[in-house]
Amino acid sequence: MTSGRIPCINPRCGRTAPAGDDGSGAIICRCCWNKLPQARRDRFNQLRRRERRMLRLAQKRTAPLTARRVEVLTRLLANGATSCWSEIATYFRDGAAPVGLEGFLKEIGL
After folding, report:
1. What is the Cα–Cα distance from 82 to 44, expressed in whole angstroms?
2. Which long-range contacts (CB under 8 A, 24 or more apart) does 68-74 make?
3. What pairs with residue 18 in β-bridges?
4. Which of 29, 52, 57, 79 lies at a 20 to 30 A Cα distance from 64?
């Protein structure tokens, strides 16, 4: 891997992306994103929408949001996004359930 590139969080994926100015060291490529279960993708997108909406309302100052409340909400949303991101990374690190005899036996409860 060349310098200035960051790899996809899926260890079996070879895609990279240019390192951004924000300092984040993890990305997920579109192909791997589409492999995630729909529920995890929906939850991550929901948290991002909530954060954008909260920041937009705080900028407009139409909502009664104090600086302290914005700080608390930002921290809560960041914690939610961090936990969601760790679940996504765990999904790729641990892999899906095995297909075959072991998977079948586990499915029927043996």
Report:
1. 10
2. none
3. 5
4. 79
Of residues 21 and 93, the one with the higher pLDDT is 93
pTM for the model stands at: 0.69
CB atoms within 10 A of CB 28: 21
| Bridge partner list, 27 | 8
Task: Report phi then psi at 13, rounded to 5.
Answer: -105, 140
Question: 7: closest CA among 21, 22, 24, 28?
Answer: 28
pLDDT in tens, 39-69: 999 999 999 898 888 888 778 766 677 778 8
pLDDT band for position 33 (cuts 50, 70, 90): very high
Q: How far is CA 61 from CA 56, 73, 100, in A?
A: 9, 15, 57
